[in-house]
User: Fold this.
Amino acid sequence: MFVRPILKIIWLAPVLALCGCASVLDEDGALAIAPYDIREDGRIVVEAQVNGQGPFAFALDTGASISVVFDEMNNKLELEPLPGQAVIIHGVVASGKFPLLRVSRLEVGREVWADPRIALLPGDTPATKGVDGILGVDFLRRYAVGFSTRDRAIRLYPPELVGRRSYRGWASVPLRPEYIGDSGAALYFFEIEIGGKRIPALFDLGAGLNMINWAAARSLGLELVDMQGDELLTGAIESAPVAARVKFDEVTTGRIRWRDEEFTIAELKIFSTITPGISGCAILGAELFTQRDFIIDFTRNRLLVNVAMRETNVFGGKNGAMRSRDDNVRTSQRQHYNQSMVQC
Assistant:
């Protein structure tokens, strides 16, 4: 049986201050706590066991509607494909049909995902370097997912625990789920504002940089320019040329503001896949969100951001080294990595 995979999208809406009893991520109530690493391209990576083996490095990706493993990891585990079952996955640049694997369990911390539906991808592009697989929305939405800069860990909460709470000093960004295709998977969007123009944006922790298409760029008064150099935007399946890059003085969603943020302009197939009928669209990458604590509350379709805390100014690299935010941004911009994929 063939099913179609889908991309995940998020709409940024006005941010409202919340009142409540909590001001930090809860120490208690989490089903699992897992240390994370922020890689050079900005991705959030955690360790997971697959069928009792590992640990393996998985990137958290709200821009992927389906979880995947790559060939190199599968060569070690020798997972069997499910007979007659494959999915069509739309990547940032290209699409393809890929097999589903027979996996009995995937573990993150103390949490076990039994009989997960996981696809196999080649993993032979720069975007897949340094990770063994991707944990997409199909895994993440089983929980409310908390990200803590203080102890460099993610927390997987029971969805109802966060769903019934408010957080003092936090802002709430409404997320708009978009269901694409027949698989029942959703991507999450919110709305951003640039230069007085509102643009729908996909919340994509799997992206190593921010992107807009030319329709959005033209709505902001930018004109088409000739592509310079041979820079490529690399996805999990293929690559595409970068058209241009632009820096915006301010990007906002409600009370959250980012200043001097660079966006890559590229005309990618994924934009039309995730936003049918909508011309202008953006993708916001992980770097914008990993400076403060945040929680993804899938039950109430909201992103909670701790605006009361100061932004962190260091990132941990793959080898444990620390570097400044600006250094990390420059590294991300040079590599142009993005792993978004959608199961339709």
User: Anything to note?
Assistant: Confidence is low (pLDDT under 50) at residues 1-24, 313-337. The first strand starts at residue 2 and ends at 3. The longest helix spans residues 325-335. The radius of gyration is 19 Å.
